[in-house]
Amino acid sequence: MNWNDESDRVVAATADGDDHAVEAALRPKDLGEFVGQERVREQLDLVLRAARARGATADHVLLSGAPGLGKTTLSMIIATEMGAPIRITSGPAIQHAGDLAAILSSLTEGEVLFLDEIHRMSRPAEEMLYMAMEDFRVDVVVGKGPGATAIPLELPPFTLVGATTRAGLLPPPLRDRFGFTGHMEFYAPAELQRVIHRSAGLLDVVIEEEGAAEIAGRSRGTPRIANRLLRRVRDYAQVKADGVITREIAAHALQVYEVDGRGLDRLDRAVLTALLKLFGGGPVGLSTLAVAVGEERETVEEVAEPFLVREGLLARTPRGRIATPAAWEHLGMQPPQQVTRGAGTGAGQGDLFGE
To answer: Could you tell me which residues belong to the region Head domain (RuvB-H) (predicted)?
Structure first.
């Protein structure tokens, strides 16, 4: 299993090809169908209603938050609510200002441009976007050197919906040009149960309330993961049972896919087990921990750590990663009677802990 490609994980928050196809069928079509994110939904509803009442194009919208929380879905809902077409692209796909100019110049009036991972756009394109968002105009440079000429190109009013998983990487001039900014929060288990029931209905799957609760509790607060686990449990129920998802069926199915009661998968547990068994709970440096589980440093830091920290199972300190009491309890292990910093397991390894 290659954990460097997070889409290999059943609990990955990123989407692969199969997820894109299924998500298209499961996506809510309007704000009334959208589950969760009440604050963002209410605020966005006011923005869109006001724009429709004025007969104007909606303000530019920035949506931030972890993968799988519904940013793309909300962008499509914005287009639907405004009765406008939507154009979808991403920051990594726009490497030159000319790429962006080609997209902007082909927009129609009122069209919604969804720019995913907007923080990864190239700097020249980013600077062009400033003028396009504010003045609905871009300057197209024709020629090179002293003979180069900037030709102003007027754009029809449009709505830019930017999505980012790392809002802190957006430069202030770009962030300030968005009329509305919404931060997507992780979902509560009760909200995920509603998502699962809705998806089960669309997939023609019979699911009991306890079965939905079992899946929701292991979905890491993310609707995309909840829908993926629902599909895997559905497969298990069809093959091993009568097709009805009960709590017992959901628990057995997720055990097969190595997703435990708190949503940890094999990689998450490998990191915690190494931290507890090999290093007595830490502190230990990230590189050393990665070597212990046979993974790249970036894989541990970007794939496993965020969820473990959010769950309160692992903590980052100036001296390295440490396990919390909850980690010992979750893995059913007894912590050492006395942990002395700089002694025992950590003695003589100061060069490993300074990360």
So the answer is: 261-355
Classify residue 93 by its DSSP letter.
G
**Cα 110–87–71 angle (5° rounding)?**
100
Span 124-173, pLDDT tens digits: 888 889 889 998 988 776 666 666 677 778 899 999 999 999 888 888 98
How many residues would you count in the chain? 355
| Identity at 92, one-letter amino acid code | P
H-state helical runs in 93-167: 97-105, 123-135
Structural domain spans, the chain:
21-183, 189-256, 266-353
Q: Would residue 165 show up in a list of annotated catalytic residues for this protein? A: yes
Q: Which amino acid is at 3?
A: W
Single pTM value for the model:
0.82
- Write the burial class of residue 331 (CB in 10 Å: 0-12 exposed, 13-18 middle, 19+ buried): middle
Q: Is 72 a catalytic residue?
A: yes
21-183: CATH, from 3.20.20.140, 3.80.10.10, 3.40.50.300, 2.40.70.10: 3.40.50.300
Determine contact, residues 226/12, Cβ cutoff 8 Å.
Answer: no
Q: Is 164 marked active-site? A: no
3-state helix, strand, coil in the chain (%, to 5): 50, 15, 35
Tell me the pLDDT tens digit for each residue of 175-230. Answer: 999 999 999 999 999 999 999 999 999 999 999 999 999 999 999 999 999 999 99
CATH class, range 266-353: mainly alpha
Catalytic residue list contains 242:
no
The tokens for 213 are 């609760």
Contact of 115 with 162, CB cutoff 8 Å: yes
From the candidates 19, 57, 116, 228, give the one annotated as an active-site residue. Answer: 116
SS3 12: coil
Query: CATH code for 189-256?
Result: 1.10.8.60
Contacts of 230 (CB under 8 A, 6+ apart): 196, 199, 200, 203, 205, 207, 215, 245
